[in-house]
């Protein structure tokens, strides 16, 4: 179980002990984001998760979705994480960090990544694959604009890698 202080702004974020690692493998950190997504689901939220990793491969923050427990439709995993990251770290530092997300960020979260100054994005399941698998019936979760399409209009470049490990993320969504 997580020891999360429900009374603080950081309740959606598990502060992670800094563990230096030289493992910069994308799959390694994506799988960690997928674990966070599983934890979000276990907490009664939607199965989305992300992690923020610095240049040395330290996991600085984990972000859970908290849309349901916070009754906040804006409480996507990335936004929750980036609120903390932007208070804690300068954009000059964040430009050398990477956010790994279980799923391709929605337009709100892709914009938040831009505004935060985070330099790199690696995502798992693409929006297109998600819609192909689960349909587009729920208009509340359908915003048909890929993060690449959106961020090509941004004033600074956010480097994007993905989709990756789509099967693993799909398995998670099918179970939840
Ligand atoms: Zn989002």
TrEMBL record:
Residues 24-158 form the CMP/dCMP-type deaminase domain. The keyword Transcription regulation does not apply. Pfam families: dCMP_cyt_deam_1 (PF00383). Keywords: Metal-binding, Zinc. InterPro entries: APOBEC/CMP_deaminase_Zn-bd (IPR016192), CMP_dCMP_dom (IPR002125), Cytidine_deaminase-like (IPR016193). This is tRNA-specific adenosine deaminase. It comes from Thalassotalea insulae.
